Amino acid sequence: MDKKSPATRAPLPFAGWQSLTPTEAAREVHARVLALPEPLRRAALAYLRPEKEIAAASPDAGAPLRGVPFLVKDLFDVAGLPTNAGSAFLAHVRPTPAQSSSLVRRLGELGAVFAGKTHLVEFAAGLTGENRTYGDCPHPRFSDRLAGGSSSGSAALVAASVVPFALGTDTGGSVRVPAAFCGVYGFRMAPGQKWIRDAFPLSPSCDTAGWFTASPDDMRTALDALLGPRVATSAPRGCFLTVTDLGSEAEPEFARAGAKMAARFAQPADGATKSALLAAWTDAIDTYATVVMNEAHAIHRDWLAPYRENYDPVIWQRISVGGRFPAEQLANAQENLCIIGDSWWQFFKTQDFLVMPCAPFPALRKADCTPEARRAILRMTAPASLGGLPALTIPVPLASGLTGGLQIIAREATSPVFDWVLRQLP
Asked: Which of 79, 120, 274, 310 is the most buried (most CB within 10 A)?
């Protein structure tokens, strides 16, 4: 039986926070943090900005995100604060940044108020929310399960109603999976975009910036503010793949709930479309592991030996292997990247979006966070990652109170598909 956590505070949407004075908002953020169960607070929150500093922020009254408090995944720099990336040593080998990352600065320009930083899976190299140094991040409502990762703290604290908005990153599902597990909305951008280039990297080819909100309306507001309004003039054309289509087993209730939610937006993929995509994605998991871990090794090469004892052994092994791939494996991965990219190019000739599950199960218990579970998640998430595509995650409620999640994948972050989907939701 799941261990239900104490009820979190009632969510306060963007407009609710904007109705508070800066002093009231600062006090409310701190009160909500204080109300968290201690294991969640310790594992999710890396830094809480002093109440007086939050209250001192005075954004322009006309700014679209005026007064909205936000948290920052600790891969993005904040001036004057160390960036630890979920690790025990990065701040010792990398100087404290003098300037905040571009996305953090942009949010400030839009009137949002920086409130703190969040923990993550060490160096963003995991999907389930585990962290040896700061503690495994528990699900905010089911304390015997994990929040998902790598953006575990950001998703968990939005789900716990501490703040209405938090930054994450997504390389292989690090926004999509915790959004699905925690029952919040998530958005991932595309690789190479300016808001990810100055965050601490895992794999520059696949890293993307992203964020979480607790409601579809707040996600629409965030998208409009950050990317500009994009409204569909007609219903876009899309289709969906189910957990079963993607070759995974799932509990019947989970599979039914996901398919029912997907059918609100699209029709099932026809046989030819499904066959073409699945054939192109046959080696997506291994291709992802090869590309991402090879690039991660290049970033960590000089630290792996001298700081071995400071790494989580699982993360150390995962990154170290990335430096031992034979040339043939690397060449095959690049060839598969082209095949996967072409499959998406062909798909978008006739479709505007694809709906897929984010994972074949809801939030996991620690004992279930196995290499097999990781591969099962990557079967769902790697195709969009390797295609370099943006995705919106929407939660799928289950009778148990847990949640699944669907990713809506479109050609570009400014696609009107995302606004159209969010408008269909309550």
From this structure: 120
Tell me the whole-structure pTM to 2 decimals: 0.97
Residue 285 DSSP one-character state: H
List 174, 248, 385, 415, catalytic entry: 174
Taking 3-state DSSP, the helix, strand and coil percentages for the chain, each rounded to the nearest 5, stand at 40, 15, 45
Q: What are the residue boundaries of the structural domains of the chain, listed by start?
A: 1-271+354-426
Question: Annotated catalytic, 275?
Answer: no
In CATH terms, the fold of domain 1-271+354-426 is Amidase signature (AS) enzymes (3.90.1300)
> What residues have CB less than 8 Å from 264, skipping those under 6 apart?
424
73 catalytic, yes or no?
yes
Q: Using only the alpha carbons of the chain, give its radius of gyration.
A: 20
pLDDT one-digit tens code per residue, 320-369? 999 999 999 999 999 999 999 999 999 999 999 999 999 999 999 999 99
Query: Between the CA of residue 388 and those of 71, 190, 293, 342, 345, what are the distances in Å?
Result: 25, 6, 17, 12, 11
59 has pLDDT over 90? no
Token readout for 223 is: 């998208």
